[in-house]
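Model it.
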Amino acid sequence: MRERLIVVGNGMVGLRFVEELLARTGDRYRITVVGKEPQPAYNRVLLSSLLAGKVSAEDVRFRDGPWYADHGIQLMLSTPAESIDAAARLLRLADGRRLAFDRLVLATGSQPIRPPVPGMTLPGVLTFRDLADVEAIRAAAGRARRAVVIGGGLLGIEAAYGLVRAGLEVSLLHLMDRLMERQLDPRAGQLLRTAVEAKGVRVLLEAETEAMVGDLTAAAVKLKDGRLLPADLVVVAIGIRPETELARQSGIACCRGIVVDDHLETSLPNVYAIGECAEHRGICYGLVEPGYAQARILAARLAGGGEAYGGSVLATNLKVSGVSVFSTGEFLGQDGAEEIILSDPGLPAYKKLVIRRFAEGQRLVGAVLFGDTADGLWYQELIKTGTPVGPMRSDLIFGRDFVEAAA
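Modeled.
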């Protein structure tokens, strides 16, 4: 008899898990996929390109409805899950239906964070997280002349660029002293700011939002220092929060995210969590690649084998109209780490490699690349594998081809 498996969440990671499981088990499981959104999984990474008009809605789609049916998968869209009865092995849906399961995978993703300031619920204040947000921003942009984007991380920068391409005057506000401070060191952050401003975005750093100003709709953003920025449209992109409500209400252990062990199992037997909603060894990754790794490892485990999940080496890629940035590992280079830096302001190009000395030799532990990011994944692999880099240290900053040619 086929085991009943339910996947709650039809995002990028949930779909990847299903694909990986089908490749390993065929029809061993009777799979049901439950998703809150009205359409099947799509590529969230391309949402900024969709907003900017560089790709179409068709370009962001992964699998259509018939693909699920062809593989014997029951796909339930626009269907929020409400609670889990672990003892009875039942998933209760918001419409009152109950689905029986033998195994349950939570891939519920995350929710955008809104700062707790007055006026945040005014019409014209939008988030940037899913297809519905893109459509709402597009509609609002068609009636707007000036926009303010709050948040200088990856999504905020991409939203700002998309709105500039749509013809709006755009100000980008960021609370910290540099853009993408969690992924870039000060030098790379300054280079990114210069590049973003060259695209037509006004960047304001160390800018703390005090309130949204407006009567019937947003008309301006007020900063703590008293400045008032007129805005017909405000886009909030300050970060994400793991979606844990279903797990918490069902008695599953949660901290910031849904706590999982090295087998990606939650505190309830046969209930697993992967992707942005999962917290492994105290870390919620909030990125696609760690989610894909978790999907692969869990699929292998449910197929009867596979490895344990030991965590992921974080890497960030940003590309906005020719601006390329890559960072991975311990890129700040603190606490006795050694730095190798190559900088050419005329290009502009910047590389920083961070090396630590261990008993067995020198290892690469972090990297920041701006401009030329071709060797980013190679540097990341050196970090993952712990490859000794002492013998290649004098050539390492120049990239893989140089190292291999010198060997």
